[in-house]
Structure formats: C-alpha cells, structure tokens
User: What shape does this take?
Amino acid sequence: MANATAGLPEHHVAHHFDTANQEFDSIKTGMWLFLASEIMMFGALFVGALIFLTLHPAAFREGANHLDWRLGAINTFFLLTSGLTMGLAVIAAQAGQQAKVRMNLVMSLFLASGFLVVKAYEYSLKIHHGTLPGRLWHGEGFHDPFVHVFYGFYFVMTGLHGLHVLIGMGLMIFALTRASKVQFSRSYFTPIEMVALYWALVDLVWVFLFPLLYLIG
Amino acid sequence: MIAHVHHENINYLKASKGLKNWLVTVDHKRIGMMYLASILVFFVTGGTFAGLFRFELWSPLKNFLTPDQYNQFFTLHGVIMVFLVVVPGIPAALGNFILPIQIGAKDLAFPKLNLTSLYLYWIGAAIALYSIVAGHADQGWTMYAPYSLSRNPSVLWMMVAAFILGFSSILTGLNFIVTMHNMRAPGMTWYRMPLFLWAMYATGIMQIFATPVLAITLILLLMENFFGIGIFDPALGGDPLLMQHFFWFYSHPAVYIIVVPGFGITSEIIACFAKKDIFGYKFVAYSSVAIAIIGFVVWGHHMFVAGQSELADSIFSFLTFFTAVPSAIKVFNWTATLYKGSIDLKTPMLYALQFLFNFTIGGLTGIILAILSVDIHLHDTYFIVSHFHYVAMGSTMIAFIGGIHYWWPKMTGKMYNETVGRTAAILVFIGFNVTFFVQLIMGSQGSPRRYYHYQDQFQIYHQISTVGFVILAAGLFMALFNLIASFFNGSVAPKNPWGAKTLEWEEADSPPVLYNFKETPVVTHGPYAFETEKA
Assistant: This one.
C-alpha cells in the first residue's frame, strides 16, 4: 500500500480516480470483498458436508478411507509451497525486482500444475473404481448404502476448488505476461498482489478440504 | 455558444449519441438508466402475469386458465418479480445513478465491472425468459427439492438464470461498498452521507455475503438434477431440509436486500419534503446495518412447519421478533421527523407516506407470523402472501416509484405533471390496499395460497382483490405515462427543484454532466441541514 505512490512513470490512473493510492485501495477492498463472498460459497459446502457427516458418519468414514491421504498430502505440499512463492512474488514486486517476480510466478505455476496432475491421477483412480457421485456410481465392496453421497461432496468440492486452481493459473499467466513486458514497477504492481490474494484463497480452501475429506475417518 | 465545449461539461444524455455508445458506456448514469428501463419492462411483465391469475381467481372454478397454466403463471410472476425486479430494483437502477453523485465521485470504483453486471443481468433475464418456453416451470420461485429435481428443462434454465443474476447482484453490491469506502469527496464523512447510502451499504453487505450461498445451492441443485449426487435428494440419502436451509440463508437476507433500499429512499424523501433534519440520523443509519446483520440469522422462520427441531423453531422465532426493533426505530424516527415539519405533499412525499403506512402493516404482520403457534395456522395461506406483498410491493416498489419521481428531474432534466403524479399516487395507494388487505382477512380464515380452486366463501374476497388490482394497475400506468410524457414535453427541470440539501441536488446539474461535477465538490454540511438555514 505504502509503495503505491503518485507520479508513476508507466501506469495511468483510470479517469474516475484522483490518485494512484485511491485506485490501489479500491481494487484491494474490492478483492477482499470478492474473496469474502467466495468464502461464503465454499462455507456453505463445508456446512453441507459436516451435516452429512453427522447424518451418515459410517458412510463418510468409509468414503474417506478410500481416499489416499498421501496424495492429498503431496497436493497440500504443492499448494502451500505455491502460496509461499506467490507471496515472494509480491515481496519482489514491492522491491521492484522484476526477474524475481517472474521466477516466482513461474515456480507457482509449476507447483499449481503439479497439484492438478495429482488431482487428475486421483480422479482417474475414482473413475477406475467406479466411486463416482450419484447415478454414475458403480463402486463395489462398500457396506454403507450412502457412500456415494460422500463422493458427491468429494467431486463437487474438489471440482469447484480445482476450477479455482485453473482460474488462478490463468491469472498467473496473465500476470507473467504483463511482468515479461515490464509493465510493473515499484510503484505499480496491483495485479500481482491481487493474483496472490486470490491464490491465498485457493490455498485456504484446500487447507480445510484436505483434513475434511482425507483425514476424518 | 462557445465553440470548443469540452465534452466533459455536456450533460450525460448528450455527451455521445447512438445506441452503440449506450451499449458500451461505462458511465454509471447511463447504466443506471438502462437498468431502470429494463426493470420497469419486467415489472410490467410480472404484473401482467399477476393480472392473469388474479382474473382467473374471479370465480372458484375454471375461468380461462387451466390449472397447469395457473401454476406456471404464479411461478413466472414470482421468479420475474423477485429475481428481475425487486432484488436488483432500487440499487441497480437508482443506486447506480445516484450513489456516486451523492458522495461526490465521478463514477463507481469499477465502471467496467458495473457494465458487466448489467450484461449479466440481461443474460440472466434472457435465460429466465427462455425458461418460460423451454417447458413447464411450475415449481414456484423457491425451487424446493425434491420437486425441482425432476430434470424439467424449464426449471433447470431458471436455476441457471438465477445463478447468473446472483453474480450480477454480488458485483453491484461489491462496487457500491468499495465506492463508498474509497471515493467520497473531500468533507464527505461517513456521518454526512445521505441515509440512502447507508441503506445501499447495508444492502451491499447482504448481497456480498448471502448471494454466494444461493449460487452454491443452485450449483448443487443442477448437479443433483444431472448426476443425482444425493446431497438434497431424500431418495438417494440426501437431506431436502438442507436445501431449504441454504435457500433461505440467501432468500431471507434477500428480503432485506429488497426492502432496505426502500428505507433509504424514504429517509431522503421525508427529510426533503418535511424540510427537517432526519430525527436520530445515526439510529436510522445503524438500524439499516443492524437489520442487515440480524437478517442473516432468522432464515429458519420460513421453515417452522418444514420439520426442523422445536429448539431451532424457538430460537428463530425469538430472533425474528428481534428484527422488529431496528425496523420500528426507523418508523418512529420518520414519524418524529414529520412532527412539526413543513410538510409539502408533492408526489414523492405521497409515496413515502404510503411506504410508512404499508410497511407498518407489512412489518406487524411479520411479527404475527413469527409467533410459532400462530404461524402453523397461517403458514401457506393468503395471509403470508399479503404480508410479503405489503413489504415487497407495498414498501419496496412504492419507495422505488417514489424514488423515481424524486430523482426524475435529476435523471432526465424534465419535470413531470404534478397533478397527474399525485392522482396516480393516490390510485396506487387505494388499489394496493384493496388488493392485499382482503388477502389478510382471507388468509386468517385459512384460505391456502397457490390453489387453483377455492371454497365459495372466499369468492367475495378474491373479487375485491381483483378489483383492487385493476385500480392499482390504472394508477401504475398513469404514473408511468406521466413520466414518459414528461421526457418528451415536460418543462425543463431546475438544478434543485425540491430544495434538497444533498450533493446531487446542490452541486450537480439536471441532468448531470458526464463526470457528474464540473469540479470535485467540497462538502461542508450534513445531508439534511435544513434547520441551520432557518436559524
């Protein structure tokens, strides 16, 4: 915030703002509000999953036991590390170190891709075992008749989260393109900070998804 | 004329010409006007559907609609009026136009996002209209599972439409809150903000925090329809009550998204036409915020007979009584503002007074419905239909129409015919109350809502209600034609025809220039500083 001072060489403040600070603060407030609404959306899903856990604890446990916690742990590592590199990208941007910004963005993209690869592998396992939601379910050897509801939650929650990972990666590519054209400076790096904020949400959701789906049971 | 007129100093209606310039504009005023036109079109559409089934109910047996058509028309009436009219209504149309001017800004914080939300509204509306012809939507606007899980294409499209409209609503609320935090003119402190803006702020909070829950509910309903994921469907081990909880977690705050902006307009009009500072400014301001917060924890009162626990019922009942406190604070403060004011019964004031009357009935019937034992009798009767129409139509739409009349000279630069405007306002008042007051009586006698056939004893009430509808429609059309006519041959509006004290009247032209003010205004007094002038 303190670095976004007036008198920018490259960045042009939009017509309806008086100063660059006002512009930056507005965008940041907007981003936080948007993230708040995202949390409400995911929050409802978590509440739903917890209610299902109390209604059918056995089904929930059985479903969770069929997930490989090690794959979840690897993905947790990928996401948390990418959170770190995104944070480093912001710090580098504040210091005006453009090469570091690009490097950290590339690292984050790499780690996010790793997450998606593992997730895709997990999905392929589920398709193989037939542990799919609802009508698509043809899993065998399960005792509880409601395990498919667990997988309903599993796919909706990880799917929606995965969509956010994809969008986040798109935003990183956008930021990387602009960084490569040297469109950021010590006084203007708003997009990088916003992408990092968004990515923090992606991390945060996963930090709760992982124990809920993989570790309970 | 000066040869080199800078385009920034021309009024926004003339700043650029042609349809294309309107469609790609990022000017909040033009976007607000396009919202206003769209919302009014849907208001007439939804009202026409209401008229169709109201006439069908003239006699207990079939008149001209089949039971199936009757179900569809009340569903369409509900969906259109809720999602396309009253929820976006005041914020999207009047808020968009007035909010930046009232705080002394050039535009909203995110003009392009604002245009995006207008397009989302149009896309959502187009899909909602398409759903009408895609099949038979007869599930009611609440889309309860498992009835909404029958893979009815019409219902599915309606869910998609509501999802998109929800995004439009979130983006508008977000834009407003950011603008109020960051774009206020020098001297515009929080407590100098007009109460309309406090209402917009409270509305924005609810839009941002409640609407995403509707979004996820709709996603889950769609997933349930396509894949049968078993989260809501009891046949697959799901919990249909969970769907109702989710739905009302949005839709109860939505009731306040609907009515709180009406509070804002009423505060503006009453202060202006009583020429008095609003009584207890901070109480009125914070009661909007309080309603927004309490509004999040009362959703269970829609589910008293749905099978939730008695403990939950009691808690929700108690919390619902609690919402009456900030609402009553507002009504008392408005009344106190009127006391010893120099009241001028211009058209907007007539609507504001109607609001006071109708909202008091709408609010008090809400208290009656919050009583658990009474609600079991009144649930799903015409009593509840009347209750929420007293709020959504009698309060919100009345305030909306009052607001349109109040800001019309600013928005268009034209004065409408005052006599016609007042006559229309009186017709609307009579028509509305004739239509809906009898429904309270009919409902208290146990007449269920949404029924195609009804018992003979209720016919007289239905007929009175239908007559009321005709009077109401006449009043509304009279108001509408009066406004449209003024656009073409009304007299030119002065800068501040009402003698109001807020920025949009004191500082901006009628209609405002492209960036609202020729130079950024400096605020030196509160929004209703009428008394200081007299002293």
